[in-house]
């Protein structure tokens, strides 16, 4: 994902803070709620309860703890409160833990009904991940639109790539990029995909590509799922 913030000075307080966050993530229901929010869109408590498989009162208690720890933020709209991850940094921590969870000896566990869809394509906070995302970055590199360096950890668009992306509807230097520039977020970086173990694209360019694919209808968000789907193939007439 994007470049980490400069290292803070380690203190006893920072160690206690890490322990607090680790304890919150140690509960499977809370972990599943946070993973559901990795999809990007804000979700209601009811939607998160279904994702975690717990009751509404239990969900409310979990969300209160996560909010108090600064891991989720809530916004009231009408009769509902919508929850999202509090920051991109929280998403980066979760992504690193998801990658770590794939290491070590394999667990003998039958694949769930959603696993195949998530491995094909999923939203990783605000950019695309999964086999489609890995293939997209590989294709951009093969066509000479981006250049990878430092063993795939760094990526930059080529002049040819900038022209291609502009034709695709992504103006990397236009006024629409002002807010993203203001955040000092890198234009593009690679992110090691936890399911494919190969890099996919993140940063402002990764987020812009996902937005564009959704706007064109090449991918469609599925309510309650992190796995956007490509359109069904047309039936022969």
Automatic annotation (TrEMBL):
Q: The HTH arsR-type domain covers which part of the protein?
A: 10-105
GO terms for MF: cadmium ion sensor activity; DNA binding; DNA-binding transcription factor activity; lead ion binding
Record protein name field: ArsR family transcriptional regulator
InterPro entries of this UniProt entry?
A: ArsR-like_HTH (IPR011991), HTH_ArsR_DNA-bd_dom (IPR001845), HTH_Metal-responsive_Reg (IPR052543), WH-like_DNA-bd_sf (IPR036388), WH_DNA-bd_sf (IPR036390)
Example of a GO biological process term: response to cadmium ion
Q: Which SUPFAM superfamilies match?
A: Winged helix' DNA-binding domain
Write down the PANTHER family for this protein, in alphabetical order.
TRANSCRIPTIONAL REGULATOR-RELATED (PTHR39168), TRANSCRIPTIONAL REGULATORY PROTEIN (PTHR39168:SF1)
């Amino acid at each position: 994902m994007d470049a980490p913030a400069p290292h803070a000075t380690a203190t006893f307080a920072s160690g206690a803070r890490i322990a607090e966050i680790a304890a919150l993530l140690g509960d499977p229901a809370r972990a599943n709620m946070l993973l559901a929010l990795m999809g990007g869109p804000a979700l209601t408590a009811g939607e998160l309860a279904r994702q975690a498989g717990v009751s509404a009162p239990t969900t409310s208690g979990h969300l209160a703890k996560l909010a108090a720890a600064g891991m989720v933020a809530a916004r009231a709209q009408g009769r509902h409160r919508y929850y999202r991850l509090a920051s991109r940094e929280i998403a980066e921590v979760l992504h690193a833990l998801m990658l770590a969870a794939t290491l070590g000896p394999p667990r003998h566990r039958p694949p769930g009904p959603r696993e195949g869809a998530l491995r094909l394509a999923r939203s990783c906070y605000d950019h695309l991940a999964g086999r489609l995302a890995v293939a997209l970055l590989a294709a951009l590199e093969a066509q000479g639109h981006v250049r990878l360096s430092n063993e795939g950890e760094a990526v930059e668009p080529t002049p040819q790539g900038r022209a291609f992306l502009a034709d695709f509807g992504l103006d990397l230097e236009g006024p629409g990029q002002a807010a993203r520039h203001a955040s000092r977020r890198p234009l593009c970086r690679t992110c090691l995909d936890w399911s494919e173990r190969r890099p996919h694209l993140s940063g402002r360019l990764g987020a812009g590509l996902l937005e564009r694919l959704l706007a064109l209808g090449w991918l469609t968000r599925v309510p309650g799922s992190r796995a956007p789907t490509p359109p069904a193939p047309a039936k022969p007439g």
